[in-house]
Amino acid sequence: MALTISIILGTVRDGRLGIRYARYIEQAVKAKGHNAILIDPLEYDLPLLRKRYSDYKAGEQIPPAVSKLHDIFLSSDAFILVSAEYNHCPPPAMLNTIDHFYTEFAKKPAGIACYSAGPFGGVRAAYALRNLCGEIGALSIQKTMPCPAVQDAFDENGTPKDAAAWKKRSDEFIEQLEWYAVPLKAARAKK
């Protein structure tokens, strides 16, 4: 069953390296036959959170980027959060993107792909994201996909330097996401 999977990149920092990893994940999701939507916070330029989508009243002007992301997230069957680690936490752009929404994530699985320029691969940010997933009703899958030294793992287009190793890792990660997403999609359809 083909799924729609939103890949949420969490950084807008100058010289960011995570876009490489996000591009790789987008390609890996498509290679498994799914619809991959890469959400780059630089493209959406969301305002700092003042209201969640659900807080807008009828007739109020909703920022176009917020409205567009609402539609994308509502139609998504699963999410992959591609997060750096800033001071042992997810970056502000990741949190701002997620915090604009709530019910759009409910009863859908989320995989966490974290990264860093150093040796730890962003795993401390992944812990925080697991807690966040629970609060927004998303189910964090067991597998994470950390990437230490991201600058050495992928080129600017998201092509891995060790294609075989990354294919094995991403296949296992995406297959676990599918394992949750397919029955949850069917259950949501039944309501």
Model description:
The chain has 191 residues and is an alpha/beta fold. The protein has one domain: Flavodoxin domain (Rossmann fold), CATH 3.40.50.360. Helices cover 43% and strands 15% of the residues. It is built from 7 helices and 5 strands. A 5-stranded parallel β-sheet has the order 2-1-3-4-5, sandwiched between helices. The chain is globular. The two termini are 19 Å apart. The mean pLDDT is 97.
CATH topology: Rossmann fold
Helical region count?
Answer: 7
Helix % is 40-55%
How large, in whole angstroms, is the Cα Rg?
16 Å
Give me the CATH superfamily: Flavodoxin domain
Q: N- to C-terminal separation?
A: 19 Å
| Poorly predicted runs | none
**Fraction of residues in β-strands:** 15-25%
The secondary-structure class comes to alpha/beta
- How many domains, as an integer? 1
Q: What's the rounded overall pLDDT mean? A: 97
